Amino acid sequence: MIEVHDLHKHFGGFHAVDGASLRIRKGSITGLIGPNGAGKTTLFNVIAGRLPPTSGRVTMAGEDITGLPPHALFHKGLLRTFQIAHEFSSMTVRENLMMVPAAQAGESLWNAWFARGRIRQEEAALRRKADEVLDFLTIAHVADERAGNLSGGQKKLLELGRTMMVDARIVFLDEVGAGVNRTLLNTIADAIVRLNRERGYTFCVIEHDMDFISRICDPVIVMAQGKVLAEGSAQEILRNEAVIEAYLGTGLKNKVPA
Fold first, then answer.
1. Is residue 220 a contact partner of residue 234, using CB atoms and an 8 Å limit?
2. Quick one: average pLDDT of 108-131?
3. Percent of the chain, pLDDT > 90?
4. Which of 24, 63, 123, 218 could disulfide-link 2, Cβ–Cβ 3.0 to 4.6 Å?
5. Taking the C-alpha atoms of 175, 178, 184 and 185 in order, what is their torsion angle to the nearest 10 degrees?
6. Residue 106, Cα to own-chain centre: how many angstroms?
7. Distance (Å, whole) CA 49 – CA 92
8. pLDDT mean over 185-199
9. For residues 120 and 172, is the Cβ–Cβ distance under 8 A?
């Protein structure tokens, strides 16, 4: 689905991404882990078009998408969420979902004057779809709540819900568990797995919670110092000496037995 070829992103003399190459398979839930400063979010930002690469190439289903802006990637079905949720706080949860699809009839001044019936029909369909999404995510009870009043976990579910309002092909989730309590994190994990299995979504997930990663992700890719350090199942990664050293500063072989 996504292939990254020798990607570099430099900020002056700092190489945030330094020759990373990786592949995200269609239909997978791929985990992306690594210590702080490893380049994970910068990699996401380059793939998702928020930052131009210094060099290298990104392809999606064989098509070169390197440097395309976020709105162009949105129309191709590539979406991302953020570590800090970006909701429209003064709008209701349902309204946040309804505004996601592009090219709505109500955006046209001509339609506002001469096609009001079409606008009403489209809004009714969007409302039904939004309510289906809220039911799927088990947050229908907050449909009429202002989004700014939601908890951190509910805001993450709302961001996930936005991806369900369009025909997403691949979704990049940046620290979906940050600031989320364990109960809601389990709800988020269940929703991701269901979207993957029932609706064919492909995911790439940045997360520091290894229990969360181990539960839903296969494979897991490890980054360190802007490069891909290792790839494998969660169990293989947890036993990988280089990964342990990158995270903890020492390898298992150097630990003194208890």
1. yes
2. 78
3. 67
4. 24
5. 50
6. 28
7. 28
8. 93
9. no
| Cis ω for the linkage preceding 70 (within 30 of 0) | no
| CATH superfamily placement of domain 2-87+152-255 | P-loop containing nucleotide triphosphate hydrolases (3.40.50.300)
Instruction: Report residue 96 as tokens.
Output: 């946040």
Contact 83, 45 (CB under 8 A): no
User: Domain residues of the chain, as ranges?
Assistant: 2-87+152-255, 91-149
CA distance 132 to 124: 12
Q: What's the rounded Cα separation, in Å, for the pair 191 and 221?
A: 22
Helix, strand, coil % in the chain, rounded to nearest 5:
45, 25, 35
The answer to whether the CB of 226 falls within 8 A of the CB of 17 is yes
Neighbours of 77 (CB within 10 A): 18
For residue 258, pLDDT over 90 is answered with no
Helices (H) and strands (E) in the chain — how many of each? 10, 10
Structure tokens at 81: 């969420």
Q: Is 61 helix (H, G, I), strand (E, B) or coil?
A: coil
